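Reviewer 2 asked us to include a model.

Predict the structure of this chain.
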Amino acid sequence: MNAGISIGKALQQGRLRLAACSETPGLDAQRLLVSVTGRPRAWLLSHLEAALDRQQEQSFRQGLERLLEGEALAYVLGEWPFYGRDFAISPHVLIPRPETELLVEAALDYLRVHPSRRLAADIGAGSGCIGVSLAAEVPGLIVVATEISPV
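Predicted model (structure tokens):
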């Protein structure tokens, strides 16, 4: 393995560089490094002295550049969490927002009150996060999801 900079140094550089364009530069740098290394955040934070390999370092720097150019973190990572699950994300779909989880909660509340309802439609599904979340939470629910964009 061709060793690069340490995890701690990468996180420090990332935090400093992203401070100009992010409200959460430290967290963004951590999430990018999690994606690049495939290691959990807790592992990274407890192994700050460990070295990235050259490919990881290059991928991290490229991700930072994309963020500094204004690209959303979700698009750089290629995935985003929603309702406890990670969803593939591309610029062809909207990034799932925490507020949208309230829509899932409202639908789940409705389905609890009306247990005979076994069909849901997700029109303009994008990443599919709403339909998939409903189907995962309600066994036997049939979800029809449609999307016009070639995702």
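Helices lie at 7-18, 25-37, 41-46, 54-68, 73-77, 98-113, 129-137. The mean pLDDT is 95. We have added this to the supplementary material.
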